[in-house]
Structures are given as structure tokens and as C-alpha cells.
Design brief:
Elements lengths: L9 E2 L14 E6 L11 E2 L3 H10 L1 H4 L5 E4 L4 E4 L26 E6 L5 E3 L2 E3 L10 H10 L20 H6 L2 E4 L20 H4 L5 H13 L2 E2 L5 E2 L2 H7 L2 H18 L1 H8 L7 H12 L2 H20 L1
Parallel strand pairs: 1-5, 2-6, 2-9, 3-7, 4-6
Antiparallel strand pairs: 4-5, 7-8, 10-11
Length: 309
């Protein structure tokens, strides 16, 4: 049996254990968002010990304590409930969709972070900009409980909400707080990728990235109804509707993040992309889930620069 308590984490058991419902294993990504900084006015990060005290010793905090509090700046962890118990970090309306119990495990991670926080004299706009210390250890423990390395609603790239009760009920994997039914929070905004040895071996050239960006956002493939749909190529690449839906959420985030670039992308002619070139791109991405994750992240972060060249 996997470890009920994450190896290396400080244990501060708040009690009130209760079983989950069973079903697809899930992990939920949160940020503490205990403050609101801006680019013009960043704010010092809340001390880790304050959050430990709130979740572990404060009456109100114990009622919403996650499984894990993670400090991505130092790699510290504190665990408040065992993995096989539900926690109460998600809103769960009586008689509605189950949230905190909706899986064989529903492991909830609160990350010590808010946008434009300051730590050691540096400002961090996104969680993925932090050192993310301890992420490999956290990921390994979550994996040990059967949570797959997928984002059924799309890897978070912004603070837009995107919720589907049907996907939530049927798919295991990682969910942002912004993906969970009956909840109105929009965090975490970003999250580190699933690191594998296979990913370390992959190298994308600038030309690869441009072609993939065009294929994902600009290629006018045909749907079953005969309409044009730029997402159709991704359904071809990954081969399943659920994974196509996952990228659809990613693309929504990309479009929001890069703004006017989307207009430029849609105005690009794709006549230079032959069917053979599309097939080559598809084969590269289809060969590895890790590559698909990497492509989505890099397109979101670098599309403007790459397409301007």
C-alpha cells in the first residue's frame, strides 16, 4: 500500500478523517492566495509557519485544511490528513456534485504562493516561475496513489475558470481548483509539468515549435459536419475526444494570454503546411504524452516571440 503520509513531510494531523467515495483518483492544485500583489506593487510572501499554524491549529483553518501544504521556494511540506481521507478544501454543496470525496483519493495540495509575491528580494508572477523545490517528490507520492499524469480539463495557464461536471465525475488526474464543480475559485493559474526522463531527452527546434503552433492554432481541419475547426488537428494528433478537450482548455488559456497574437495566428496562411508536414508533427507529439505537455506549455509562453521571427 502507498504511504498514507508523504515521506519527508512534517505530520500535523488535524483529525476528522472520513473515507472517499471511490472512483478515478484525483489531485487538486491550489495556491494559498493569502494576499494580492501586482506587478507595480509586489507583496512579501506570507511566512510558511503562518499557514502551518492556520491549517493545523486554527479552528477555522482546520475545517478547510488540505492534505498537503507545499512551500515551492524551500521544498518544505506539512501534511494535515492522510491520503485515504477526504479533506475539506473544496466547496461541496449538500445534495450536489461530490467534490472532496469524488475519487479513490482526492489529494489536495495548497501551495504557498500568490501572484507577484516577493521572496528573497525577487518577485514571482506565476507559480511556475518559483524554484518549485520538492515538486518531483510530491509528484512521485501523488502518482503512488494512482493519480495519472493528465489534466482532464487542461493544464492551468491562467486564472480562467473551466468546469465540467461530466469530466469531473468520470476522469482521474490533476485538476485546478478552477476546474472543480460547485467552486468559484480560479487558482492556481499555473502548475509545474510532469517531469520524466523521456522529457529530458526531447529537443524541439524553433522550426518544430512554429509548425506545431500553426498546426494547433491555425490549421483549418475539417470536422464531421464540414465546418472548419482549428482544434481538429489535435484530435487527430492525440486520437481521443477527452484529450482533445484537454487541449481545448489549453488553447483557451493561450488565446487569453497572448491576446492580439491569436488574431495574427488566424490570419496566417497555412497553405505552406502540407499533409505530410502535419503528419510529421502529429507523429512527434503522439509519440509522447510528455512532449504534448511540453508543447502546450511552450506554445503558451513563447508563441508571440516565435511567430514574430
Amino acid at each position: 500500500m502507498p504511504d498514507l503520509w508523504m515521506p519527508g513531510a512534517t505530520r500535523l494531523d488535524v483529525g476528522d478523517h472520513a473515507p472517499t467515495d471511490g472512483g478515478p483518483a484525483k489531485a487538486i492544485a491550489h495556491i494559498t492566495w493569502d494576499d494580492n500583489g501586482t506587478a507595480a506593487k509586489p507583496i512579501p510572501l506570507e511566512p510558511y509557519e503562518n499557514l502551518v499554524g492556520y491549517f493545523g491549529r486554527n479552528d477555522a483553518g482546520r475545517k478547510a485544511a488540505p492534505h498537503i501544504l507545499w512551500d515551492p521556494f524551500t521544498g518544505r511540506f506539512t501534511q494535515f490528513v492522510p491520503a485515504d481521507s477526504r479533506s475539506k478544501s473544496l466547496a461541496d454543496s449538500a445534495g450536489g456534485t461530490r467534490t472532496n470525496r469524488a475519487g479513490s483519493v482526492v489529494i489536495q495540495i495548497e501551495t504557498l504562493f500568490f501572484p507577484y509575491c516577493q521572496w528573497n528580494g525577487k518577485t514571482y508572477a506565476r507559480l511556475v516561475d518559483t524554484p518549485c523545490k520538492g515538486w518531483p517528490e510530491l509528484l512521485a507520492w501523488v502518482r503512488s496513489w494512482g493519480v495519472p499524469d493528465v489534466w482532464p480539463m487542461g493544464r492551468p495557464v491562467n486564472f480562467n475558470a473551466n468546469r465540467s461536471e461530466a469530466i469531473w465525475a468520470s476522469k482521474g488526474g490533476w485538476y485546478a481548483h478552477a476546474h472543480v464543480p460547485e467552486n468559484d475559485h480560479q487558482d492556481p493559474g499555473s502548475w509545474p509539468g510532469f517531469t520524466t526522463s523521456e522529457e529530458d531527452d526531447m529537443a524541439l527546434t524553433d522550426d518544430d515549435l512554429k509548425r506545431i503552433a500553426l498546426a494547433v492554432l491555425g490549421y483549418k481541419g475539417k470536422t464531421d459536419t464540414g465546418a472548419t475547426d482549428p482544434l481538429d488537428v489535435y484530435a487527430y494528433i492525440r486520437g481521443t475526444d477527452s484529450k482533445a478537450n484537454s487541449l481545448k482548455a489549453q488553447i483557451t488559456g493561450v488565446a487569453t494570454g497572448v491576446g492580439e497574437v491569436r488574431t495574427d495566428v488566424r490570419g496566417l496562411s497555412t497553405a505552406g503546411l502540407t499533409d505530410a508536414q502535419i503528419a510529421t508533427i502529429a507523429e512527434k507529439v503522439a509519440a509522447s504524452d510528455a512532449l504534448a505537455e511540453k508543447v502546450a506549455e511552450r506554445v503558451a509562453g513563447k508563441l508571440a516571440d516565435r511567430l514574430a521571427e
